[in-house]
Amino acid sequence: MMQPPAIALGLRLRVLAEGPGASAAQVITPAPVGAADDLEALVAFASECDAVTFDHEHVPPAGLRAMAEVTSVQPGADALVHAQDKIVMRERLTALGVPCPRWARVGDRAAVEAFAAGAGWPVVLKTPRGGYDGKGVLVLDSAGDPAWSTAEAWLADWAGRGGLLAEEHVAFTRELAALVVRSPSGQAAAWPVVETVQRGGVCHEVTAPAPGLDEELGAHLTDVALRVAGGLGVTGVLAVEVFEVLRDGRPTVLVNELAMRPHNSGHWTIDGAETSQFENHLRAVLDLPLGSTRARAPWTVMVNVLGPREIEARHEDLYRSYLHVMAHDPGVKVHLYGKEQRPGRKLGHVTVHGDDLESVRARARHAAAFIAGEIDE
Ligand SMILES: Nc1ncnc2c1ncn2[C@@H]1O[C@H](COP(=O)(O)OP(=O)(O)O)[C@@H](O)[C@H]1O
Ligand SMILES: [Mg+2]
Predict the structure, then answer these.
(1) Which of 21, 266, 282, 316 has the fewest other C-beta atoms within 10 Å?
(2) Residues 261-282: pLDDT tens digits?
């Protein structure tokens, strides 16, 4: 998704791909294959680039530092660690005075139960590193929850690596995300705050702007995101995922986590904003002036196309669904990632924008459900 704006800007992308079939490798050449922890591959790749950036967080700091010896690496290792390690992130945000859920580092079952004694059940356990789409997030309802067998295995696995993150289970009214972008010279811009809907830890739907968002709260959240971007020295796109909660009847936010890259909560910007997160990410990592983040329409809804749970529902070839979807609604924008279908996997997304939220949302949901094979008319 970085390639279209790169073409428009006349920038040459290359990708170090995890495998020859990777989505990015299908549209960018050359695409040498190399693992994110293969120092030699990283340095060989980086030495041929003017700037290096990422589409996932899981590049170990040693690799980032080695690449920074030979080229500009954006964001740098010192910033990126806050998106790689949820405990480091919690420590830093707490030090910056950013509101977070109650949390603790826990090394064993007794520590989890001690945390629950103060914060109450349920407790959310998270692996500090390597998680995404809810993998690495476990909710424990009580001391007798059957999920404890998994929790015990995780605790054992992470015992020698600093333990796990425990958090209070936040009774949020909804999830929001603030998307901002910052350049090395410190210019920053913010897109409208969005509402996100997660199911089983996977993002399903994003509405821009967040409907009915308290104006002051939106400004506060944007300010928090810009403060985090500046405070952590983030370059490129930063997504700040938050929980909206009611405190004494007033809405406020608690920060869930950070992503330092173009993020699913910002895919709506490709069709719905004057400058997409991908274009502004490119501009930022090259320290070019940033483009306008204004929305193109009053409402934009993005719905993910997820691999169907039931094999029978699967379209052998997602392209087959285009005829119906496009004939039905010429305003729908379809984006597919060239990935092999697996249940629940993000295969693509659709976007619709317009003046009426209900109709925009219904149209986007219909198109995504049809492409995914959940409905057949
Ligand atoms: N402390 C919490 N309280 C309530 N729900 C949570 C909490 N932490 C995570 N969740 C839910 O799980 C989802 C995934 O958690 P997150 O930490 O964002 O993991 P990932 O890295 O997989 O995105 C969140 O979007 C939210 O819906
Ligand atoms: Mg998340």
Answers:
(1) 316
(2) 999 999 999 999 999 999 999 9
Regarding whether 362 and 220 lie in a shared domain, the answer is yes
Ligand nearest to the CA of 176: 1
In angstroms, rounded to a whole number, what is the distance separating the alpha carbons of residues 288 and 183?
8
Q: What is the CATH number of the domain that holds 151?
A: 3.30.1490.20
**What is the count of structural domains for the chain?**
3
Q: Pairing state of beta strands 346-354 and 333-336?
A: antiparallel
Q: Could you tell me the residue range of the domain that residue 34 belongs to? A: 3-73
CA of 189 to the centre of ligand 1 (A): 26
Q: Which atom of ligand 1 is nearest to the CA of 241?
A: 18
Mutation test residue for ligand 1: of 102, 121, 137, the one with most atoms within 8 Å of CB: 137
In a domain, 96, yes or no: no
Q: Closest residue (by CA) to atom 12 of ligand 1?
A: 201
217 lies in some domain: yes
Annotated binding-site residue? 244: no
pLDDT in tens, 134-154: 899 999 999 999 999 999 999
Our answer on whether the CB atom of 101 is closer than 6 Å to any ligand 1 atom is yes
The H or E element that residue 165 is part of is strand 164-168
Q: Is 256 annotated as a binding residue?
A: yes
Residue-level pLDDT at 311: 67
Let me know whether 182 and 110 are in one domain. no
Query: Looking at the structure, do residues 66 and 143 belong to the same domain, yes or no?
Result: no
